[in-house]
Every structure is written in structure tokens, then in C-alpha cells.
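Hello, quick one for you while I still have it in my head. A protein chain has come my way and I'm curious about its shape. I'm sending you its amino acid sequence along with the C-alpha cells. I'd be grateful if you could look everything over and explain what you see. Here's the protein in full, and shout if anything looks odd to you:
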Amino acid sequence: MKKQNNFFMAGCSAVLALFAASCSLPAYNSETPVYPGMSNSSFTDYSSYSIQAAEVDDDFIRGVDASEVKALEECGIKFYDDNNSEKDVFEIFAEHDVNWIRLRIWNDYTQAVTDDWAPYGYNNLSRTINMAQRAKKYGMKVLLDFHYSDNWADPSKQKCPAMWSSITNYTELASAVGTYTEEIIQAMIDADCAPDMVQLGNEMQGGLFQTGSSVSNAKSYTSYYLKAGAEVVRELLPDCEIMLHMSNGGNSSYLNTMLSYASAVGNDGDGNPYVTAIGVSYYPYYTSHYSDTALKINLNKIKNSGYRVIIAENSFGYSNSAYTDSTSNEFWEDDEETCATMLTGYDKYEGIVDGKIPASIENQAGVMEYLMELCSEVDSQGGYFYWGAAYLGVENKMNSSWENQALFDVNGKVLPSMDVFINK
């Protein structure tokens, strides 16, 4: 996912305005934005909300992606619990029974967080270790998401990291993947925050290193790169799960490709498959992700193929505005109709109203609950991760197009929708 988000985060208003006009995206918020950490009005009272927890087993993954947290904190963002008390956001997650944290890492992580912070160097090793340690402190497990890129990796962008761009032989490139994977995981082991699951590549059904590599047709050797990473993970962390991840959760062709990759990666010396889980991104406001019916068919195929079933990314708007910066939000009014078309069985709260699933705190929680339970029906030991859970924005430093899909409001206070994770 995050395809348009790269444009939004660059901080160039002229480019953004042109992009918005050409794609009929909503205009910038005309009101003065409110930013966490500034002089805000009193916190919103959410005590009247009654959010239902998802009906899933104790061992089901109830996870969030919190990759932005440390960099946002460095920019002044603070997070608050239900009682308006400032807390470590990982403690707030744990209080709501989140049991897994997903953290991505990029290869070139030398860039500082500044007013001129592109190309997004905030997902570095030191910040990842900091967040992983805090997740472990509060009893949560960690999924480490290797993008194997210096920047966002998604279906339209799988660029070879600059440090490997001069390698001309695919076996050498696979060796570099293995060495890098080993360095990162060993550093986390040494810091006592080893991952419990490792994701090799991000939304990579089209293959790794589609651009930027000196290897001829580099993406055709993807299974070699994946195996190099998997071998290291299994050697250093024998009990660590290994996941492959695709976008467009209901696309059967993409899933067939992922299953082929998993098969090609093969087994370890004891005959155990390296890949133990297949994760999918599913954003119901993109028609390319297909309907909930198609999604469930794919999830069943993953289960029947012997892999743990994971919805690795999902989100939904609690508002059609809720700006924390002057960047247009990814989720807006037209997406409500798309979601109603995609989530044909949605029956939480008011359900589908006049062909829409309106943006609201209840429906944010409802979509989460609906998809968690859909996944659990297929695999009671499966899992769900909410993407951008704390992705608020900081003007000119870490702008965000995701803030009205975060699980915290513009003041950094946790929303009632977080209660969907509570383990009954």
C-alpha cells in the first residue's frame, strides 16, 4: 500500500497540488490545522462510546503497525490514554490487548528527521530497536518488516537499495541480502528485542528489485533473495516465523505467485518449510483489493496450503477530516461508497447505510472487527495488523495523509476504536 502516500509526504506543495488536481483528490484542509503538542482545546470525552471487541481466540494476532512512532516522538508528538494521561504509546497499545507490533526497516537509514527529511530515513535500526524494546517491555511480540529498499516498497516500487545497485550477479545480490538480514537481526538479538516473526519483502508479489539493480532482470531471481534471508532467520532464530506479503488481498493471481515463492524458498535441513505465514494487505477503499468474498477465498487458500493466515495491513477512516497537518488525507467521502461495495457482508453497528459505510469511530472499529473475525473464521491462529495506528502528522517534518485513519485523534488521544483489540 502507501502508493500515493509517498507523494503526500514529500512536503512539496506545488507537486501535491498538481497531483491532487489530476487525480481528483480532495483539496487541502482550509482550516487551521491542529497539531499534537501545541496549545489545544481540552481533550475529547469518548466515554459514551461502546465498542465491541472482536470475537477471536486468545492466540490470534491482534496487531498494529507502529513504524512511525519513534520519529514522530522526536518531532514532538505525544500520546494520551483514555483518561487523558500522557503515556508511552506502546503501553497504551498493551492496555488495549494489542499483542503484536509490526515495524518496518529500510536499508538506507542514515537520513535524519529534519524539515528536509525525504527520503524517509526515519525507519532506521536504532529507532527500530528502541520501539521493539518498548514493545517487548509491555509484553508484545514483534514482526520485523524488511522492505529491502531505501524507501517505500509496494507493488509499484521495488527498488534495489543503493548499497547493492552495482552488484551484477544475482548470486552475489542474494548473498548481500543474507548478510544484511543477518546484521539487522543479530543487532536486535544483542539488544534483547529479537523479532518473533520476520517479513521478507513488502507487497512484493511482482518480485524484488524491479528497478535500480545492475543484475539483468533482477526480479526473476526473487526466490533466491528470499531464501537467503530465510536461511539467516532460521539459523539465528530457529523458532521465528517467516512471512511473505502481498498487496491486493483478494487477487487470486497474486496469491498464486506468493505461494510459488513460498514453495521455491523450500525447507530447512530438517525438512521444515522456511515460510510459515502468508500476509495480505486489504484496504476496502481500493477496488483493486477485491471484495470480502474474494478475500476470504484467498485466505482459505492460504490456510489450505499450510500457512498461517495474516491480514498484514488494513485501515479505515474515523473521520473525513481530522487533519493534523495541511496534507490531504488518503481517506475521504468517496471511499465510503467503495467500502460498502467491497465489504458486502458488513453488518457492524449501523451496517451499510444508503450504499455507504460512513467514516466514524464506530465504523473504524467495525471494519477492524469484521475483518479480524473474517480472518479468524478461516484460521483461529491467524492474525490481523492495523496499518498506521499512530500515524499522526507534523507539519513540514513528517506530514501524513493517514491521520484520519489513525487510532488516535488529532490531539494524540487514543480513540475508542482501539477497544476492538480487547481480549474478552
User: Anything to note?
Assistant: The longest strand covers residues 100-105. Confidence is low (pLDDT under 50) at residues 1-39.
